[in-house]
Write a structure and sequence with these properties.
This protein is α/β, with parallel strands linked by helices and about 375 residues long. It has 15 helices and eleven strands. The chain has a single domain, classed as TIM Barrel.
Length: about 375
């Protein structure tokens, strides 16, 4: 069975009937349990649970401290190319948008890497638009090989690839993949992706599993909050994470909660989500998946990110710039507007002040004689 088959099973059920059928008593019963079922997760994102966020937060805090301590891994994104052949209606990199297209040369990448690594960051997220011509697997391999000189952990957010291609990137030094399904509702997905290879819903849905099979150390998934109805999107994200963690227990899995931010082009958000709903989703993720990491990016404003500490967060981006070459040259179109513009040092000091330990390096990639070794 693939995850697509599991989705079809649940789509045959009336989730709305479940969501609006829960009572306060049901929520309290779920909060007393140590292991939760998918139906329990539905209870935690239901309207009835909205009145129990404080109780959920207490338990989420306890689980986070138990499994992750008071450590927050810091990372930075680096956009290495923005060429894209897709027409995602919500993205600056949409093929039809008029913006300067660019791909970093090795020399330009080195300049960016020097800037980022000087801040102390050792976990890097390399991102591209989706163009196999301008951002080919061979080009990405070349960048990854160079990135090993500056960073201990290299995560990729690129176009979906085959298992063999992921294996080659792992051999080059990549150890993580982030791939958002964007929206799990298949009908909405087709509306949001009218043209381009990204329109292939099933191929994208199976991408995290191909990365797991290839041997990626970490895999991150998520839905772009605002494209679909948030409760069902959160439910299928949680199911996806549970499916992968059960099938690939050696993979370090994480969930991101990206909200749509202003970008190049015009797009009316179909399902805008408020802070309270955002917190409810995050708390439900932590209670349902206590061992899974949760990433919060600089899409969220500084004060809000600070207040999320202790409620489930394990990874945060810092000092983020979303334009290609943006760390060395402040000009250029970013993929979206950053909301938390603090420097890495400012985020580090905030964590210390709140009693948390910023972690810059918790992984080392070593290759000897064609074999791969890792250590914390």
């Amino acid at each position: 069975m693939s995850f697509y088959d599991l989705i079809q099973h649940y789509r045959g059920q009336n989730l709305s009937e479940y969501l609006y059928g829960f009572t306060d008593r049901d929520i309290l019963r779920v909060l007393c349990k140590n292991r939760l079922s998918p139906e329990d997760f539905l209870a935690l994102i239901s309207p009835a649970a909205a009145g129990h966020l404080e109780k959920m937060a207490v338990k989420a805090h306890e689980l986070t401290i138990r499994h992750f301590g008071k450590a927050i891994v810091l990372f930075a994104p680096m956009y290495i190319a923005n060429y894209c052949v897709n027409q995602c209606v919500y993205c600056s990199f949409n093929h039809q948008n008029q913006l300067e297209r660019k791909r970093l040369s090795i020399e330009e990448f080195q300049q960016e890497a020097i800037k980022i690594s000087a801040s102390g960051i050792r976990h890097i997220l390399l991102l591209t638009g989706e163009s196999r011509t301008e951002s080919s697997p061979e080009y990405i391999e070349e960048i990854v090989t160079e990135a090993k000189r500056y960073f201990s952990s290299i995560t990729l957010e690129i176009c979906p690839l085959s298992r063999d291609e992921y294996e080659s990137l792992i051999y080059s030094g990549a150890d993580g993949l982030t791939i958002y399904q964007e929206v799990y509702d298949e009908n909405v997905y087709k509306l949001m992706h009218p043209f381009g290879p990204k329109r292939n819903y099933r191929y994208r849905l199976d991408t995290p599993e191909r990365a797991c099979m290839a041997g990626m150390r970490t895999v991150g998934i998520g839905a772009l909050l605002g494209l679909g109805e948030w409760r069902t999107e959160a439910f299928f994200t949680a199911l996806h994470a549970q499916y992968l963690s059960h099938k690939y227990p050696d993979v370090e899995l994480s969930i991101s909660l990206p909200r749509i931010r202003p970008h190049t082009g015009s797009f009316d958000i179909p399902y805008a989500i408020g802070d309270r709903e955002f917190v409810q989703i995050m708390l439900a993720f932590r209670l349902f998946l206590p061992h899974v990491g949760i990433t919060i990016s600089t899409r969220e404003r500084a004060e809000f990110r600070d207040n999320l500490l202790g409620l489930g967060v394990t990874r945060m981006s810092a000092g983020s710039i979303t334009a290609v070459g943006g760390y060395s040259n402040k000009n250029g179109n970013g993929q979206f507007q950053v909301s938390d513009g603090r420097s890495v040092d400012e985020v580090r000091q905030m964590l210390y002040q709140k009693g948390y330990q910023p972690v810059f390096k918790d992984w080392q990639y070593i290759q000897e004689g064609g074999r791969h070794f890792a250590g914390n």
